[in-house]
Amino acid sequence: MAGRERRLMTDTVALIGLGTIGEGWGLAFASAGHPLRLHDADTTRAMQAAERIGREVAGARVEVRADLAEAVAGVAHVQESIAETIDAKTALFAELGRLAPPSAVLASSSSALLPSAIFAGLDGAERALVAHPFNPPHVMRAVEIVPSPRTSEATIARAADLLSGIGQVPLVVRKEVPGYVMNRLQAAVVGEAMHLVAEGVVSPEELDRAFPAALGWRWGVMGPFETMDLNAEQGFEAYVDRFGASYQQLTRTLCVDAPWTPEAVAAVAEARRRAVPRAALQERRRWRDRMVRAVAALTAGRGARG
Questions:
Q1: What distance in Å separates the CA atoms of residue 34 and residue 37, rounded to the nearest whole number?
Q2: By percentage, how much of the chain surpasses pLDDT 70?
Q3: Closest CA to 264 of 190, 182, 179, 184
Q4: Which of 82, 183, 223, 240 is the most buried (most CB within 10 A)?
Q5: Does the bond joining 136 to the residue before it have cis omega, within 30 degrees of 0?
Q6: What is the mean pLDDT of residues 108-134?
C-alpha cells in the first residue's frame, strides 16, 4: 500500500480535452493524489476546469498548459477526451506519439470508436488503448479498457493498475467491437425502449418509473448472468433449461434497431421536461450523483459472498 500511495502521489497525468468527461477524469485522478496537467484547444475552458477541480478536491495539484508538448512532457499517463470524431482523434494521437514520453500510456476516452482506427497513424501503438469511462467518471467507478490488436499486455496491465488505484473497476474488452461492451448492452435497452414508446406499448413516464424497481435494483448489485443464476433453484443451467428457449424466441421479436421516430423522440422529450424542467437539470444531476454514490457505498466490497 505504501508503494501505491507513493506512486499515486508522484505519477503525473495529462488530460487532453476538458469537457464533461475530461473534467470528471480530473476529479477522479486528483482525488487519488495525482498531479494533473490540463490541455484544451480552448485554454479558458481548461482554466475553468482547473478552478473547479481545485474547489472540489482539497490539495489538488493542477496545472494548465496551452502547449501540448508542455502538457505531456514527463507524464506517466495521457487521457484524451476530445470530440468523438475519428479524424480529430487520429490526428491528436499522431501528435501524442511524437510528443509524449515513450514510457507513457496513451489512452482515449472514446465510447464507441475502434482502437485500431483511432491509433492507425500512431508510432508506438503498443502503448495505446481506449479507457472508456462512464459518465461522470468521478462518480461512475467503472472503465472499459479496450486494446487494439497492437496494444501490449504490459500496457493493459499498467492501465488497469493505474485506474484501479483511483478507485475504478476495470473491464478488459478482449476483442474489438463497435461500442465495446456496456454501450452495446445500453443501446439494446434504449433501442427497445424507444420502439415500445413508438408503438404505444408504454409511456415514457411509466417506463422510467418502473425500470429501476423492475430491473435496476438487481442490476445495480449484480450482472445479468448472476441474476439468472440466482433466479433458479439449481442455478444458471436450470434457468437456461427452463427459460432459454422462450428468451431466444422473445429476442427474435425485439426491434432494438428500429428507427427512432420523431413522434417517439418528442414524446420522451416532453415527458422529461414535465418531470424535470430544463432549468432544474443541474440540480437533478447532483441528485443522480448522490444516489449513485449511495448505491456504490452499499455495494462496496460485496465480492462473491453477496
A1: 10
A2: 95
A3: 190
A4: 82
A5: yes
A6: 95
Residues 6+ apart with CB under 8 A from 8: 32, 33, 34, 165, 166
| CA–CA gap between residue 104 and residue 82 (Å, rounded) | 19
Is 60 exceeded by the pLDDT of residue 4? no
Cross-strand partners of 106: 78, 128
Reported as type and span, the H/E element at residue 243 is helix 236-251
Q: Residue 187's Cα: distance from chain center in Å?
A: 14
Cell of 20: 464533461
Amino acid 288: pLDDT: 93
* Residue 299 burial (C-beta neighbours within 10 Å; 0-12, 13-18, 19+): exposed
Q: Please report the domains of the chain, with CATH numbers, ordered by start residue.
A: 2-172 (3.40.50.720), 182-305 (1.10.1040.10)
The tens digit of pLDDT for each residue in 49-85 reads 999 999 999 999 999 999 999 999 999 999 999 999 9
Residue 82 CB contacts under 8 Å (≥ 6 apart), including other chains: 16, 17, 41, 88, 89, 92
For the residues 290-296, what does the mean pLDDT come to? Answer: 89
Q: What is the pLDDT of residue 126?
A: 97
CA 154 to chain centre: 22
SS3 30: helix
Give the DSSP H/E element, type plus range, for residue 132: strand 128-133
* Residue 174 near residue 192 (C-beta atoms within 8 A): no
Cell numbers that stand for 273 in this block: 421536461
pTM for the full model?
A: 0.87
What is each CA distance from 247 to 113, 243, 244, 252, in whole angstroms? 30, 6, 5, 9
Instruction: Report, as an integer, the average pLDDT of 111-118.
Output: 95
Ranges of H-type helices in 110-152: 115-118
Percent share of the chain, pLDDT over 90: 87
